[in-house]
Write a structure and sequence with these properties.
By secondary structure, this protein is an all-beta fold. The protein has no helices and nine strands. The protein has strands spanning about 35, 35-45, 50, 65-70, 75-80, 95-100, 105-110, 120-125, 130-140. The strands form two sheets. A five-stranded antiparallel beta sheet has the order 7-6-5-8-9, with no helix packed on it. Strands 1, 2, 3 and 4 form a four-stranded antiparallel beta sheet that branches.
Length: about 150
């Protein structure tokens, strides 16, 4: 050891914000939509749905998982409006947890004026940056209301 610094102090570590900051690559944990399908998995033992397909076992029962695809439509479970800018998102913007029909719960950027209420059905997709974003709102009878982005 020379100069009072250990050799490990100069190596990249997990606390840095990815390769651009000199650290280790950071995995993108956001759900992905490919060809109009939300990629995920389902436990073959208990049926638990996951928004990620690259997990080694079910987090609910530790059973084996199988790759699954889900339609990117679901019911709003909870919603909030963020009133400060965050990254590339300018304020105000809204976020909602959406229970995908027969699938997992995912976080979706939704229209802010006004945001959908819990219980409303929304359709979503992935934008160019990889975020899930609302593309429509369905009425109770299953028809769109014209609230498309």
């Amino acid at each position: 050891m020379s100069g009072g610094r250990s050799e490990t102090a100069t190596r990249p570590n997990k606390r840095r914000a990815g390769r651009a900051a000199g650290g280790l690559a950071v995995a993108d944990s956001r759900p992905a939509i490919v060809d109009g399908v939300l990629l995920g998995a389902r436990c073959s033992a208990c049926g638990h749905a996951l928004a990620r397909a690259d997990v080694p076992w079910c987090p609910a029962c530790h059973g084996p998982i199988e790759t699954a695809g889900f339609e990117p439509v679901g019911t709003v479970w909870a919603v909030t409006t963020v009133r400060i800018p965050v990254g590339r998102w300018s304020a105000p913007f809204a976020l909602a947890y959406v229970d995908v029909t027969d699938g997992p719960r995912v976080l979706v950027h939704v229209h802010c004026a006004p945001p959908p209420a819990p219980g409303e059905k929304v359709a979503f997709t992935a934008n160019a940056d990889g975020d899930l974003v609302q593309i429509g709102l369905e009425s109770a009878d299953g028809t769109g209301d014209g609230n498309d982005a």
